[in-house]
Amino acid sequence: MSVKPPTRLDSCIDMNVRFCLILFIGFALAEMNYSSLNSTAEELPPAAVSGGFSDGLGSVLEFDFMPEDLSESARTAFCLVYVVIIVLGLGGNCMTVLVVGLNREMRTVTNVFLVSLAVSDALVAGINMPLQLRFYQHNEWTLGQAACKLASYAQGVVIVASILTLISLAVDR
User: Fold this and answer.
1) I want to staple 10 with a disulfide (CB 3.0 to 4.6 A). Which of 6, 47, 99, 136 is the partner?
2) From CA 112, how far away is CA 116, in angstroms rounded?
3) What is the pTM of this model?
4) Ranges of each domain in the chain
5) Is there a contact between 168 and 113 (Cβ–Cβ < 8 Å)?
6) Which CATH class is domain 8-172?
């Protein structure tokens, strides 16, 4: 039985998987360090709860942390626009993955990069945008601290993956 030598596409996929794994581990370590530096509302100094504290730049009051509530019409408009973008983003990017996945002649290096970009964009549309919409609707984070950290982490990973895929695509061209 003869062994087929790896093609340029196979080595590109291997490199992409290794790169995503390194990126994932790097972001996990960075998020752990970052989360230990951040303070939640419960961890603020007592002066912040009792009226404010000074950070050397001025006084920060508790109500300064959240923006004003949106009007009902603005919430409805946000919801409508977000839902349209989410549906179109998920649909279009999933179709891109399907077309390249089902057609053997479409499996080129450039198209693999485009599939990687489509997957990261679909993750933005499927994970980050619904969470942001919920935040805008309630004007506060209601899903707990673990979901907050996971959402921030996921947003960072998929955006950096998109950027690095675009850079790789440009270098390949």
Assistant:
1) 6
2) 6
3) 0.60
4) 8-172
5) yes
6) mainly alpha
